[in-house]
Amino acid sequence: GGVALPGGGRVGPLAKMLPCPGAHTWQALSQAAACVLLLPRFLLTALMLWLLDFLCIRKKLLLSPAEAQAQAQAQGQAGEAGRGPPPDDPPLCVSDSNRMFTLESLKAVWHGQKLDFFKAAHVGAPAPNPEVVQLDGRTRLRILDYARGRRPLILNFGSCT
Questions:
Q1: Contact 56/94 with Cβ under 8 angstroms?
Q2: pLDDT tens for residues 95-142?
Q3: How many angstroms separate the CA atoms of 105 and 43, rounded?
Q4: What gap in Å lies between CA 134 and CA 140, rounded to an integer?
Q5: Is residue 13 pLDDT above 50, yes or no?
Q6: Of 48, 62, 66, 70, which Cα lies nearest the Cα of 92?
Q7: Rounded to the nearest 5 degrees, what angle is found at the Cα of 62, between the Cα atoms of 76 and 47?
């Protein structure tokens, strides 16, 4: 089960599956380029999250007790008239558990932007055509090989109940 080399030697099946060293360099360079390209967009998003947190905290903490009482009375009267905030609207509360500018949210934003940058499908571009393996485990085709004429190709991921 090996591959014959031009000099007469053979390479085992594991060796032919290993990527070439240049692939790792190319991958590292593309990751570095993505970081440089995504950094301004990420910083803008982080600034927006910080501003949202700042505005929420400012609104909550900087209201004087008299303003807070007047606002509560106005909401109570508006609620009686049917124009107040909806009953499922949570009260504005500042705590560590509902802040938007957290390390976890910044990690999620960075990860999402990287996924968006490296995705294979782009609006207006041809659809990706990845290789698929049939159930027998030996036959490999491309997804678009299953398309017939002008009929649409439907991919169903999951059950159809």
A1: yes
A2: 555 677 888 888 988 898 888 888 878 888 888 888 888 888 888 899
A3: 13
A4: 6
A5: no
A6: 62
A7: 110
Check: CB of residue 109 under 8 Å from CB of residue 92: no
For 116-161, what is the HEC assignment? HHHCCCCCCCCCCCCEEECCCCCCEEEHHHHCCCCCCCCCCCCCCC
At 22, is the secondary structure helix, strand, or coil? helix
* Mean of per-residue pLDDT scores for the chain: 74
Angstrom distance (rounded) from CA 43 to CA 20: 35
pTM passes above 0.70: no
Which residue in 108, 114, 120, 106 sits closest to 33, CA to CA?
Answer: 114
